[in-house]
Amino acid sequence: MPSTVLEVNNLNTWFYTNRGIVKAVNGVSFDLKEGECLCLVGESGCGKSVTALSLLRLFDSPPGKIVDGSVKFEGSDLVHCSSARLRQIRGKDISMIFQNAQSALNPVFTIGDQIIEQINVHGHISREDSRARARELLQDMSIPEPERTLGMYPHQMSGGMKQRAMIAMSLSCNPRILIADEPTTAVDVTIRAQIMHILHELKARLNMSIIFITHDLSLVHEIGDRAAVVYGGRVMETGTVEDILKNPSHPYTRGLISCLPDISTDARRLPSIPGSTPNPLELPDGCPFNPRCHSVMEICHSSVPAISYISDVHSVACHLYNEGKDGK
Ligand code: SF4
Fold first, then answer.
1. Index of the ligand 1 atom closest to the CA of residue 299
2. CA of 181: how far to CAs of 57, 197, 294, 296, in Å?
3. Model's pTM, two decimal places?
4. Ligand 1 geometric centre to CA of 17 (Å)
5. Which of 18, 240, 287, 304 would bridge 300 by S-S if both were Cys, CB 3.0 to 4.6 A apart?
6. Could you report the per-residue pLDDT of 197-230, keeping only the tens digit for each?
């Protein structure tokens, strides 16, 4: 049985703005096992990325603040540990690939300098050895002419090259956990396939644990072992990828799956979930999905649903299950 490498309990991250309190993450809990890929799935604005940033406290504070919860990693609670301890862990033990390589890379330093700096922050090895390591990392990312690429600035590279260079940087210290926040959003399908192949290979070769954030269920199918469906800053359903894709139980998960395009029909319009994700400044009382849910009941407007277990590994937060109905 693989051991648990990360345990997130009741995480709440709020932002105190002039317009009010933005409740971006509201009681998120999950765990991550060694060598597994857990996908955080949901529409844009549902709280996936802020959850990921909260794990390493990578947001501006103020206005952001983790108001409750814990993130346990190797005996440390990353919510309450010192900044010095967190700096040791960031990039070395837990690394992150950001959504937009263009803004994550520094435009005034070469790719080589940026990767070498990352290696030296945690490694303290000679300039020559760290340059050789940087070259090897670019090679692993299937970047042609790695030596020449080390001397390039971000603006001289294509979007796909920048994304792969950022992945190389995040892997420079062989992290135990990689957080990949929509790493294929800004690249074309060919580069997307390459990046997915690289992540697969790393997971298998290094037994790396991955938190993969996406709105794309086809990627969940491609890389995930388990998935947590997030909405309104809460986890709505958790299970194996098979549970989520073949036996979706929460009305929101079923809605997401019903929106997948079906090329076997000649329907001209893609189905969609009516309405839009809630404004985190004005989350509805009770279940955050209640304005869009076709199964909504009176209790859904006043009470946040508790977690119900469908099996040991499949859970759902919905009153349909609290009430003892199967909801189908
Ligand atoms: Fe729908 Fe109620 Fe379940 Fe929320 S708790 S998903 S509103 S049935």
1. 2
2. 15, 16, 30, 31
3. 0.90
4. 29
5. 287
6. 888 888 888 889 999 999 989 899 999 999 999 9
**pLDDT 10s digits, 2-53:** 899 999 999 999 999 999 999 999 999 999 999 999 999 998 889 999 999 9
Tokens for 152, please give them. Answer: 């390039």
Nearest-atom index, ligand 1, CA of 297 = 2
CB neighbours of residue 289 within 10 Å: 26
Point out the ligand 1 atom lying closest to the alpha carbon of residue 295. 8
**Choice from 229, 253, 273, 293 to test ligand 1 binding pocket (greatest atom count within 8 A of CB):** 293
Q: Are strands 177-181 and 94-97 parallel, antiparallel or unpaired?
A: parallel
Q: How far is the CA of 301 from the centre of ligand 1 (A)?
A: 9
Distance 317 CA to ligand 1 centre (A): 8
User: How many Cβ atoms from other residues are within 10 Å of residue 13's Cβ?
Assistant: 27
pLDDT digits (tens, 9 = 90+) for 249-300: 999 999 999 887 776 666 666 777 888 888 888 899 999 999 999 999 999 9
